[in-house]
TrEMBL record, chains A, B:
Residues 5-65 form the HTH tetR-type domain. Keywords: DNA-binding, Transcription, Transcription regulation. It comes from the Bacteria. One of its GO terms (molecular function) is DNA binding. It holds the Pfam family TetR_C_13. This is TetR family transcriptional regulator. SUPFAM superfamilies: Homeodomain-like (SSF46689), Tetracyclin repressor-like, C-terminal domain (SSF48498).
């Protein structure tokens, strides 16, 4: 019964919001199976362990988010305007989550990094790959802005890493205060980190 | 036996590194008592719950860290030089922890914010108070730098919050990559966030 073809998808679909909201250690396999409506035997048919499930959840979540980031960051408009849109969409996404579950759950990748990355190497490696991919996507936009004379940075990759760090830090505050407006600071801070002139960026972001 | 006068201190001393390293949900009261060398009955004599212990650990950890921050941020030298020293001491502290336990465990306040702040109101409130106190301490230094013409910021509190956000973001990367050198970027990023001129700050930080 449980090993029907959609049991794996049911488990993943149930685990994703649970991990996002409550983290990894607080969750048990039995609770995930109950939420998914599948027997526990099914779980171990599809996943070797809770860690294997977490890796699959990370992969699936990043696949969706990478698509969103690519659409925004490789879309039309001036490079810095696209970064601004990324911040706005991130804030809108957190707000939608807050409206549906009553609380800002933050960034699943940041959450699991601080909860787990020093404890399990497979999860650490996967999170490193995800953050490297994020930094690389931002780096391309930063380099493009620099080449257009709209940003002044020495090392575009380091600048991109600092922008992602600022994003994670402000998402941490948004979660702490259950208030997504902490992300409002991102755009101005990004301009500062890129030594971008406000007048230039005002025109490119319009 | 267990309810001797130092059992509470033993529990706190054992819980602090365990929570810092592995978080809250992954730990059980039995494990904490075993590490502390006290019977479980003792635990509930001193602490109503694991949450009550976590609050006490947060208080004790912040009391020590607040002392360090005050010594550095209210110490001698130009204001921005003191901020730089804070970053350097934070990095040195993370490095010392890494050398003793093999892994960068990050910032306990950041860790518990992302693991727990959306799940328990008492811990959320305590973490808010701690981060507000951090932001306030940085704000005073930023305002002092601004008054000396060494930083250009509109809202010193918002600038301070962005500096603390940047700190938390880079500590997240330090934990993810088990490499404290991610904190090296803090000083340059801080100057950018404060629109501080490098030439000014080079002289004040010497």
């Amino acid at each position: 019964m449980g090993r029907t073809s959609d049991a794996r998808e049911k488990i993943l679909a149930a685990a994703q919001p649970l991990i996002e909201l409550r983290g990894y250690s607080a969750l048990g396999v039995a609770e995930i199976c109950k939420a998914a409506g599948v027997p526990k035997g099914s779980f171990y048919y599809f996943f070797e362990s809770k860690e294997a499930l977490a890796l699959a959840v990370l992969d699936e979540h990043w696949e969706a988010q990478r698509g969103d980031w690519a659409r925004v960051l490789r879309g039309g408009g001036a490079p810095l305007a696209r970064l601004r849109r990324l911040f706005e969409e991130t804030e809108a996404g957190l707000r939608a989550g807050q409206q549906s579950c009553g609380t800002v759950s933050g960034c699943m990748f940041g959450n699991l990094t601080l909860e787990l990355s020093n404890q399990t190497e497979p999860i650490r490696e996967r999170l490193q790959q995800i953050f490297e991919a994020q930094v690389e996507m931002v780096e391309k936009v930063v380099a493009e802005a620099r080449d257009r004379g709209e940003a002044t940075v020495g090392d575009a990759r380091e600048a991109a890493r600092s922008i992602v760090a600022q994003l994670e830090g402000q998402v941490l505050f948004a979660k702490l205060y259950n208030d997504t407006r902490h992300l409002d600071a991102l755009w101005e801070n990004c301009l500062s980190l890129l030594s971008a002139r406000r007048t230039d960026t005002a025109s490119v972001s319009s």
